[in-house]
Specification:
Distance between the termini: 55 Å
Structural class: mainly alpha
Number of helices: 14
Radius of gyration: 29 Å
Number of strands: 0
Strand content: under 5%
Oligomer: single chain
Order of helices and strands: HHHHHHHHHHHHHH
Helix content: over 70%
Shape: flat
Amino acid sequence: MVSLGAGAVAAATDFPAPPRRVRTVTFSERLAGWTLAGPAIIAMWLLLLGPAFAVIALSLTDWTFGAPTIAFVGLANYAEMAGDAAFWMSLYNTLAYVAFVVPLSVLLGLGAALLIEAGTSLRGFYRAVFFLPVTSTLLAMALVFQFAFHPTVGVVNQVLSAIGLPTADWLKDPNTALYALGVIGIWQNLGLNMVLFLAGLKSVPRDLYEAAAVDGADGAWERFRRVTWPMLGPAFVFVVTISAIRSFQIFDTVAVLTDGGPNKSTSVLLYQMYQEGFSFLRSAYAAAITCVFLAFVLAVTLLQEKVLERRAHYG
């Protein structure tokens, strides 16, 4: 038997690699790709990008609804907005509403999900009960809350009076009207947040709890702090983002219950846009408010996601 040395083996196997063949895409393959992607691209332009560019273009004009002429005015609408006290009031009310609704709806949704997941019976029933507000028509339920917040016969004041606490005309008092609407927003968002957190809890591996128990984390709080909360990072980021977007879009309850009052205390951005565009017929100015609203929501969402993503653990 002939044995080859290390040098001979290296020399025998040291051959240049064959050149890589670059495959060119044929015209028929390109055509097939565009044909398959075409419907989605057209739908995206018709439903998303097209209307957005149309609103931006409209905000740079002086058009009013029904006017036969239209002229380009540049940033005049935005300059007017910068000096409009009603716009700044609506922006402040929107931010105050979001700051009130988002934290409470997220925490209550997480609490409801943990309680349902820890239960041993009637889980489906409780899930349906908590999720019912999401499927309800908000305009119809607004009438129920209008009765609940009634200053004399409302359930809220009746309960507060029975336990000796002061009552208020919740929807007519400028100091409480926005927070009364916030309670409705929390009630509406809680069910969706609960379902999203339940999905996140289902994805937590069971063996992590067993490993935590071996390390001495036997209590419910220790299991939540060491395992559940870190693994809920992606779900938490998604829930906070969705809750913030839904809260920024508040309009129905304002239009039905308070009409922006009293004294503009519940006038939010979308309601201000509605009034300018459909009550005062100032379509271009309403479009400018819409552009600011969309830009503001996008900026807040991206900032929020960037900050929360750093604290999210993806298993």
